[in-house]
Amino acid sequence: MSGPVIVVHGGAGSIPDSRDQQKFDGMCAAIRAAHYAYETTSSITEACQAAVECMEDDEAFNAGRGSVLNLKGEIEMEALFMEGKDMNAGSVTGVKNIAHPIALARKVMENTPHVLLMGQSANDFAVKSGFEAVPDDYLMTSHAKIALDNFLKSGSQPITTEIGQGSVGTVGAIGMDVNGHMVSCTSTGGITGKMAGRVGDTPIPGAGGYCNNEVGTISTTGHGDSIMRYCLASKIMHHLENGNDPNIAAQKACESMSSRVGGSAGAIVISKDGKIGIGFSSPKMAWAFLENRIIHYGIKHGQHLTTDL
Ligand SMILES: NC(=O)C[C@H](N)C(=O)O
């Protein structure tokens, strides 16, 4: 392999066509950030973190700034960082007032004996780790407020549909370096109208993501309560272990999840031989990857666009 493999997603669900271009722009920026980080550090860990941080800063996505609101009108964010050489993992849930939950998940992975820290304790750990607090005003966008208002008026259950604007858009980045070392990163605000304290799939290894150099790396998105019940990332790993092509592994697992437990989902995958897989049972999933200095991207089933790095 001549270079690293880097794939990102910007969320699965029902996304109005008017939002497509923002997602494309944000994902292409994330791929460029990852490429720059890799060129300057030769680290796939830095590259994937840079991609996710770029999307956490972009209010077109439901992660970091732009995160959706729970029933109390608050932001509670979640993230998972995982490395494939020893399946080390770090994650956070229910964190508030930080710009980059993915960076905090990495600190949990590298600097604690644990996998998952929650709520105020995760925020206390952020302070100890030198993270600056950011105000609610920075994280909370008008899109997220409109989405909660529309959700409350509709009286429906929290799902991954853009009710109004801003509900979909969990972000993920997966990568493999030239030595076959793999990383998986996922970050989200969850789903609009979730109960306060609800934990979704994103921070759970085997659901929101997984990474094992001997098999592959995965980041998922979609209806988290369904993804957890189905252990979506773990199912995709099984399909890879059974020799399935990563595209088939991702598509098959998302469709089986939808027919078995309901909800819809999407996943990005890299297998240990560097092949990329993209699959979703939702109407749309924003995805992008880099190959030979060309960015490939799309959001609808069957769509495949390209642009220069
Ligand atoms: N859009 C998403 O991917 C939402 C996320 N999986 C959750 O349910 O928390």
The sequence of SSEs as H and E is EHHEEHEHHHEEEEHHHEEEEE
Rounded to the nearest angstrom, the distance between the terminal CA atoms is 19 Å
Poorly predicted regions are none
**Biggest β-sheet strands, sense, barrel:** 9 strands, mixed
- Report the radius of gyration as a whole number of Å: 17 Å
What is the overall shape? Answer: globular
CATH architecture name? 4-Layer Sandwich
* Helicity range: 25-40%
Quick check: average pLDDT? 95
Number of domains in the coordinates?
Answer: 1
Describe the fold and architecture.
The chain has 309 residues and is of the alpha+beta class. The chain has one domain: 4-Layer Sandwich (Glutamine Phosphoribosylpyrophosphate, subunit 1, domain 1). It is 34% helix and 27% strand. It contains nine helices and 13 strands. The chain has helices at 20-41, 44-56, 101-111, 119-128, 136-139, 142-154, 224-230, 232-241, 246-261; strands spanning 5-13, 77-83, 88-95, 116-118, 171-176, 182-188, 209-212, 216-222, 265-271, 276-280, 284-291, 294-300, 305-308. The strands form two sheets. A nine-stranded mixed sheet has the order 4-3-2-6-5-1-11-12-13. A hairpin with a 4-residue loop joins strand 2 (77-83) and strand 3 (88-95). Helix 1 packs antiparallel against helix 2 (44-56). The longest helix is centred in the N-terminal third of the chain and has 22 residues, at 20-41. The chain is globular. Bound molecules: asparagine. Asparagine is lined by residues 11, 13, 62, 160, 168, 170, 188, 190-191, 200-202, 221-224. This is Asparaginase-like 1, metazoa,Peptidase T2, asparaginase 2,Nucleophile aminohydrolases, N-terminal. Has both L-asparaginase and beta-aspartyl peptidase activity. Does not have aspartylglucosaminidase activity and is inactive toward GlcNAc-L-Asn. Likewise, has no activity toward glutamine. Belongs to the Ntn-hydrolase family. The active site is at 170 (nucleophile). GO terms for molecular function: asparaginase activity; beta-aspartyl-peptidase activity.
